């Protein structure tokens, strides 16, 4: 997640509520016939953590970070791309320049589905220069990658077209995602029925925050967490500070999940979610200690499964 202005579990089936989100029905009328919605798969936590281990190794081998314009970022992108290429995705690297350095976005399309109705999921792949960025945002990047790989393993053929993205230079001001959106034609922007953003989803003292930008997407995530018996709150800390903002500004419906950055967990939140009140959700935010030890496995597991749940529910 980019710097602010100073001062700054598995669902095994799609619920009826999510089905209504997709199919819709007239209040008081018998629901129209609707094909069965495929259940989202469990996203293996071990697989997500294996990606994080690789990102940590890449940072360690490249000056301790994976920042824009540095060797660690390009190596991170190459790692993700190789996984996607092997799984049958059509990948595209989009190049841009920021702060005198070359940056890259990685776009991966899953063949099939209605390309006039695109469900897109994304995360920023860059870290700050101060550290390896394993929670910010290796966590979102790894979970989105593993969800994409789960699509391939399942041979999933949704009604809508699936697209996944890993953004460069988010930490410099959403540069990569803004470049992508600005270079879409108005026709192609209109084809994106929803963009889902995942930036910091494994915070060590986690909260469970849901973006409230689009009601249908918000409800999908809330339904998932209601099924787990986990309370959620509306996400406010990162509002406008991550890669959903350029999409939202262009009129694309957006949503996402967040586990907290440098805001302080309250006593009420600790009573609801566990963890430690009076401490930041992520004490290693934008620091050298944002390593593989800076991850809460429960939050990472729940949020990874929630990504798959939403991708399946919103694309069927």
Would you spell out the secondary-structure blueprint of this structure?
Elements: H1 16-23, H2 45-61, H3 71-86, E1 90-98, E2 101-110, E3 114-124, H4 134-154, E4 160-167, H5 175-182, H6 186-190, E5 192-198, E6 209-210, H7 215-228, E7 233-234, H8 244-249, E8 254-258, H9 267-273, H10 297-315
Short description:
The protein is an alpha/beta fold. The chain has ten helices and eight strands.
Structure commentary:
The structure is a single chain. The chain has 316 residues and is an alpha/beta fold. It contains 10 helices and 8 strands. A hairpin with a 2-residue loop joins β1 and β2. α2 packs across α4 and α4 crosses α10. The chain is globular and about 45 Å long. It starts with 15 loop residues before the first helix and ends with a helix. About 10% of the residues have low confidence.
SSE pattern = HHHEEEHEHHEEHEHEHH
Count helical runs: 10
Helix proportion range: 25-40%
What would you call the shape?
globular
Strand content: 15-25%
The oligomerization state is single chain
First CA to last CA: what distance?
30 Å
Strand order of the largest sheet: 1-2-4-3-5-8-6-7
Low-pLDDT windows of residues: 5-36
Largest sheet: 8 strands, mixed
- The average pLDDT score comes to 91
Work out the number of β strands: 8
Structural class: alpha/beta
Whole-number radius of gyration?
A: 18 Å
């Amino acid at each position: 997640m980019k710097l602010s202005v100073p001062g700054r579990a598995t669902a095994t089936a799609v619920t009826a509520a999510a089905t209504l989100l997709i199919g819709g029905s007239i209040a008081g009328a018998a629901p129209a016939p609707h094909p069965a919605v495929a259940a989202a798969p469990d996203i293996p936590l071990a697989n997500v953590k294996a990606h994080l281990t690789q990102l940590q190794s890449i940072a360690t081998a490249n000056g301790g970070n994976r920042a824009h314009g540095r060797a660690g970022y390009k190596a991170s992108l190459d790692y993700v791309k190789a996984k996607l290429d092997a799984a049958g995705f059509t990948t595209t690297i989009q190049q841009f320049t920021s702060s005198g350095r070359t940056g890259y976005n990685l776009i991966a399309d899953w063949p099939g589905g209605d390309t006039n109705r695109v469900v897109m999921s994304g995360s920023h792949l860059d870290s700050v220069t101060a550290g390896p960025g394993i929670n910010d945002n290796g966590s979102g990047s790894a979970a989105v990658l593993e969800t994409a790989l789960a699509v391939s393993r399942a041979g999933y053929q949704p009604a809508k077209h699936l697209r996944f993205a890993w953004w460069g230079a988010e930490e410099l001001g959403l540069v990569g995602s803004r470049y992508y959106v600005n270079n879409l034609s108005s026709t192609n922007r209109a084809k994106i029925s929803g963009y889902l953003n995942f930036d910091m989803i494994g915070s060590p003292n986690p909260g469970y925050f849901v973006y409230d930008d689009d009601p249908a997407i918000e409800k999908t995530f809330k339904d998932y967490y209601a099924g787990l018996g986990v309370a959620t709150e509306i996400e406010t800390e990162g509002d406008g500070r991550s890669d959903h903002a350029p999409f939202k500004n262009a009129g694309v419906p957006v949503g996402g999940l967040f586990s907290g950055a440098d805001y302080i967990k309250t006593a009420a939140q600790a009573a609801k979610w566990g963890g430690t009140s009076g401490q930041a959700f992520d004490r290693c935010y934008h620091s050298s200690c944002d390593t593989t030890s800076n991850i809460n496995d429960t939050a990472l597991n729940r949020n990874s499964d929630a990504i798959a749940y939403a991708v399946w529910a919103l694309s069927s």
